[in-house]
């Protein structure tokens, strides 16, 4: 058995992403996006049972974890799923499982 005292740096982002994805509200927000779709906060809130404030809170966590990307256009901020970040994290975990366990 290996003694693990710290999480490797390359796993820090993975941990934040999985923590963000561990919440059912955030999962539903991600599932609201169609392929290649960009949505603003009002559109996401309209598709949710949560208040706009709660949606904003969850979007912040998803964005900080790398699950969502965003761009401000005029006064609106548009979000979209960061497929490359999520895919990379899952591949990293699978690689570890396949090679180290």
UniProtKB/TrEMBL annotation:
Keywords, ordered alphabetically: DNA-binding, Transcription, Transcription regulation
SMART domains: HTH_ARSR (SM00418)
Pfam families, per database record: HTH_5
Domain (HTH arsR-type): residue spans on this chain: 6-101
PROSITE patterns assigned to the protein according to its UniProt record, in alphabetical order: HTH_ARSR_2 (PS50987)
GO molecular function, one term: DNA binding
PANTHER family: TRANSCRIPTIONAL REGULATOR, ARSR FAMILY, TRANSCRIPTIONAL REPRESSOR SDPR
Listed name of the protein: Putative transcriptional regulator, ArsR family
